[in-house]
């Protein structure tokens, strides 16, 4: 019997998706729940799995935009067979495959050894399996020396490539933007056009948090099963600052301003499909360990392409960390319909004045981009300064943005 497969609804308000890639061939036998296609929506990339076992007939083509509920393939359940898909190799199996590949490639590498190489260099090339034709010889008449091989293996590969150029074919390639990338492009342009976006900056002395983390990270990992990172400190500091400045946690809906008595924090994470922003729900109620655990869970799902639509929607505020890629300063773009986003950056040792003396401290620049239609300059600057205070004195995270002395004195 031939069964039709339709595109399920990835989420509310999504009416159309795009066939990003078929993971099976036409006529191939598929098992139940076997991934058969990747589909792009304007919010995420999802997997389409087979609902039946049998021989598949593809109807839609890669790149086609299809409506939710449309038939994209059919499966003949009367056909019996075995799926071509195999479970992922275990680490041991992977090591065995790599070892076999190395054995197969060794004779090829030996055959490519340039005759203009010193005996020691020739032996090193054999052992390492590198292609001798890629190594520039610095010896007499272009002879490859031991130093040439060592430089190539230990990082000279990049240097050699830079000297030789990296392409030069003058070829061009073109590919269609995914639906997700097109939607991101539209949203980013609309933010610039439809909001009064400004950015304010500050700097944070990370000494206290770094010392605290260094002192307790092992005990923290043993007790909670997750690493203690900087993101949990910033998330917690932001939730407390949002309580004090609720407009930063709000958004505009027509001529109405909506504010929230909770903090659902979007955390930008890198994935093979690009930057994703899953949401940590009710972060204001979480401990540092709970925040770290939830961020880890969401990051793994993003990496594996398993994030659900509802895990990436409904945030009230966003944090993005360009510092992990080496960014010193940036003006992050608001994630609509939110009204503000915090940008973290890299930590660099810089000279600063402390009690009239110049000292070297690990400094991070932070940025708050905000919609000036709903957030005044005073609120934005005060919000960012409050985050700075709590990171520079982490004990304030325990006492509602106040110092222990202020709590004791009822100030």
Task: Describe the model.
The protein has 411 residues and is of the alpha+beta class. The protein has three domains: 75 residues, OB fold (Dihydrolipoamide Acetyltransferase, E2P) (Beta Barrel); 74 residues, no CATH class; 230 residues, Chloramphenicol acetyltransferase-like domain (Chloramphenicol Acetyltransferase, 2-Layer Sandwich), CATH 3.30.559. It is 33% helix and 24% strand. Strands 9, 12, 15, 16, 17, 18 and 19 form a seven-stranded mixed sheet that branches. Strand 18 and strand 19 form a beta hairpin. Helix 6 packs across helix 8. The protein is globular. About 6% of the residues have low confidence.
């Amino acid at each position: 019997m031939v069964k039709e497969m339709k595109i399920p609804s990835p989420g509310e308000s999504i009416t159309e998706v795009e066939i990003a890639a078929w993971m099976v061939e036409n006529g191939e036998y598929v098992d139940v729940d076997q991934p058969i296609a990747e589909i792009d929506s304007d919010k995420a990339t999802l997997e389409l799995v087979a609902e039946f076992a049998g021989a598949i007939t593809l109807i839609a083509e890669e790149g086609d935009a299809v409506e939710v509920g449309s038939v994209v393939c059919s499966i003949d359940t009367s056909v019996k067979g075995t799926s071509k898909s195999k479970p992922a190799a275990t680490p041991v199996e992977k090591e065995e495959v790599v070892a076999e590949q190395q054995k197969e490639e060794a004779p090829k590498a030996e055959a490519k050894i340039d005759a203009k190489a010193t005996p020691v260099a020739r032996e090193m090339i054999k052992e390492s399996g590198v292609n001798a034709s890629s190594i520039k010889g610095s010896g007499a008449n272009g002879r490859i020396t031991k130093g040439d091989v060592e430089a190539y293996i230990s990082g000279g590969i990049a240097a050699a490539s830079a000297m030789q150029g990296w392409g030069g074919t003058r070829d061009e390639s073109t590919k269609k933007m995914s639906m997700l990338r097109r939607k991101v492009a539209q949203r980013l342009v609309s933010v610039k056009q439809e909001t009064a976006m400004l950015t304010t900056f500050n700097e944070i002395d990370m000494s206290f948090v770094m010392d605290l983390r260094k002192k307790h990270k092992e005990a923290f990992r043993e007790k909670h099963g997750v690493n203690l990172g900087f993101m949990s400190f910033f998330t917690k500091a932001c939730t407390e600052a949002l309580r004090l400045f609720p407009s930063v946690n709000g958004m505009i809906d027509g001529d109405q301003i909506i504010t929230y008595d909770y903090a659902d924090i979007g955390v930008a994470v890198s994935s093979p499909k690009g930057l994703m922003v899953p949401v940590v729900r009710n972060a204001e109620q979480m401990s540092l360990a709970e925040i770290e655990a939830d961020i880890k869970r969401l990051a793994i799902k993003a990496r594996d392409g398993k994030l659900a639509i509802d895990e990436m929607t409904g945030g009230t505020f966003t944090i993005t960390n360009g510092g992990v890629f080496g960014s010193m300063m940036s003006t992050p773009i608001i994630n609509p319909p939110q009204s503000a986003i915090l940008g973290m950056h890299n930590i660099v040792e810089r000279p600063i004045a402390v009690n009239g003396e110049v000292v070297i401290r690990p400094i991070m620049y932070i940025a708050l981009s905000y919609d000036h239609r709903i957030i005044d300059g005073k609120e934005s600057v005060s919000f960012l300064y409050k985050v700075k205070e709590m990171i520079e004195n982490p004990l304030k995270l325990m006492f509602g943005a106040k110092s222990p002395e202020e709590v004791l004195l009822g100030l």
